[in-house]
Amino acid sequence: SGGWLNSVKVVLGFLEVALAIKFLSNADMVEQWGLIKRETFFALWFIVGLLTVLYLLGFIRFPHDSKVKKISGIRAGFILLFLSFTIYVSPGILGCHGKSLWQHSIISGFPPPWSYSITGSCETTHVDSYDYYEAIEIAKKENKAVFIDFTGWACVNCRKMEENVFPDVEEVLSNFIICQLYVDEKTLLDNPETVIVPTSDGGSKKKELKTVGNKWSTLQTVTYASSSQPYYVLYHPEKGIL
């Protein structure tokens, strides 16, 4: 026991705040509130990191804290760790303008995607459509196959693929019509739809689709017999699934 243990609790409290920002960011993207876009996310994490460093240095004290008279080796190590992380996330505040410094591949999947940004999208992979049926019509006109990406705003693995893998195969993807379908988006459809879906006992039932996410998740489950994300499909309007 001692003052050091209180320091541990406070540092863990700062980490909980950072994680709370992450989960609030997920809800923000799913609901499309526009409150915590990519730059805002990094700014909040930068502030949390900076406050943690100042606390460990003794510039910030809480009622039960002992005065920091000497910085031990362990405390110095944590100061260096949090300071490095704070510096690492700082370019993210600039959005696309900070991308030239580094692309935050270490924490890829945790921040909002480049498309959910204040400064505008700077994704290298061009998305042709966010609508399944529109993408197929485009593919028919251009005589191309559609690369369908069933993704989700709250899907960390989806972000990792889109930010780390897609840019590496950009030349290959350019041969397809890229269609991204967010299965967890809560934006309401202009015209709610009622569809017939199969049930586990071999029957069928009516299902009302009220949100964009409902529409695309049901499409994925019924048409492609999968409900996992990320999930990729190559579909040609004439040849079917490739």
Strand content: 15-25%
Poorly predicted regions are none
Structural class: alpha+beta
Helix content: 40-55%
Distance between the termini: 63 Å
Q: How would the global form be characterised?
A: elongated
**What's the total number of strands?**
6
Average of per-residue pLDDT values: 89
- The side-by-side strand order for the widest beta sheet comes to 2-1-5-6
* SSE pattern, N- to C-terminal: HHHHEHHEEEHEE
Largest sheet: 4 strands, mixed
**Structure annotation, total helices:** 7
Radius of gyration: 23 Å
Walk me through what this model shows.
- With 242 residues, the protein is an alpha+beta fold.
- It has seven helices and six strands, in the order H-H-H-H-E-H-H-E-E-E-H-E-E.
- The chain has helices at 3-31, 38-57, 73-89, 132-142, 156-165, 170-173, 212-224, and strands spanning 146-151, 177-182, 188-198, 204-211, 231-236, 240-241.
- The protein is elongated.
- The protein starts with a helix and ends with a strand.
Short description:
The chain has 242 residues and is an alpha+beta fold. It has seven helices and six strands. The strands form two sheets. It has a four-stranded mixed beta sheet with strand order 2-1-5-6. It has a two-stranded antiparallel sheet with strand order 3-4.
SSE arrangement:
Blueprint: H1 3-31, H2 38-57, H3 73-89, H4 132-142, E1 146-151, H5 156-165, H6 170-173, E2 177-182, E3 188-198, E4 204-211, H7 212-224, E5 231-236, E6 240-241
Parallel strand pairs: 1-2
Antiparallel strand pairs: 1-5, 3-4, 5-6
